[in-house]
Amino acid sequence: MKQLHKQSSANHRRDEEIPAAPTSPYSPKTLKHPRSLPRSINYLFKEQRLLFILVGILIGSTFFILQPTLSHLGPSESNSAIPRHVTTGVTTTHDQIASYSKSNFGPGKTGRIPVGIGNRRLRIVVTGGAGFVGSHLVDKLIARGNDVIVIDNFFTGRKDNVVHHFGNPRFELIRHDVVEPILLEVDQIYHLACPASPVHYKFNPVKTIKTNVMGTLNMLGLAKRIGARFLLTSTSEVYGDPLEHPQKETYWGNVNPIGERSCYDEGKRTAETLAMDYHRGADVEVRIARIFNTYGPRMCLDDGRVVSNFVAQAIRKQPLTVYGDGKQTRSFQYVSDLVNGLVALMEGEHVGPFNLGNPGEFTMLELAEVVKETIDPAATIDFRPNTADDPHKRKPDISKAKELLNWEPKISLREGLPLMVSDFQNRILNEDEGKGLK
Ligand SMILES: NC(=O)c1ccc[n+]([C@@H]2O[C@H](COP(=O)([O-])OP(=O)(O)OC[C@H]3O[C@@H](n4cnc5c(N)ncnc54)[C@H](O)[C@@H]3O)[C@@H](O)[C@H]2O)c1
Hints:
Helices cover about 45% and strands about 10% of the residues.
């Protein structure tokens, strides 16, 4: 009888819980009977359970209220890999790691830095990093202990220029065209990707202007998205055939918008405009360098630029080609001086634009003489008609960079040329161009 009663009460409970209609496996859970509520309240009041719950809530809330203050006073303050910001003219790598890491955490910029990210190395992307200037910049950044990602489509750059970093875990190389967007997490972007010599940028002018406009837009968009600082390598060509001499950054230039060189000159001018618009309109930290003629090891052998032309011709025992009467002037900067200037600009507090060049002015004939002295005094000169839109005078006024970046070039043409010549001699003798890793 007792058993029968038990069974029937069990059945009764089951009847209460199981719904009348058969349920599909996806039907919502049945609600418990409302009569279970007073039983739960009863349960809570028994054995001081409610008191324990309230004490638990109190302890939890106190911890969460005090936690930000505690973490601020914790060991990270005294023993941190992220030093506090120091307001010197040039911020150090570590200061930047702290500020960049913070800037990557939302618009409030006050979020705490997750462990493992806060003390990581500065990560830098160099577009065009397999080219002449880019590869020297990469060398400097790697030597400083930064993580470097090179983006290059190898139009004029070569793997040979960065092959010595292969196998280094702090170095990455991505074959990519900047005309297409890319998503990376970095702290700084040095944007160099663009063919720089007339033979290269005139080879496909539409591609050149696309690289300057769409490539720069893509990299600025990336900088905005991830809160990275962005440096544009513009050019002295933005001054065109200048009517002011030497050229200051305040000079707006004398540029032909429809000439053969316009894809480069106007492309760079547009790139500067884009950089400033992202700076003013989207708060992107930009830096603009206007680079004047630069020379050094790893320049393309036959890129038509005057220094590489003369040096390669003198080594090959060919006459040095001088366009026009050879009285047009240029200034020549050694590549390590430029790289120091780019880094000082990136790490300084000023947007620019800044002229980065060597103010020592040489006529083409004087340059030819220095090349002859350095390589082959018997070399001859072959005069040819001048090319269209070739500027007559080019000399930077670098007082702004001297004052605000504390930068000026150190290496004279007579010191720098022999350093380039030995690299060119090796490459010409080994005929490595075209047979390298490109
Ligand atoms: N060297 C100079 O005298 C000088 C003067 C003024 C300005 N600059 C500027 O400095 C930068 C570097 O010049 P450089 O002399 O090292 O030239 P470079 O031709 O040696 O290097 C340019 C690099 O950009 C890469 N590149 C070109 N188009 C690309 C694209 N669409 N996507 C990805 N990569 C691309 C090339 O493959 C190359 O590695 C350029 O922006 C140039 O305009 C140089």
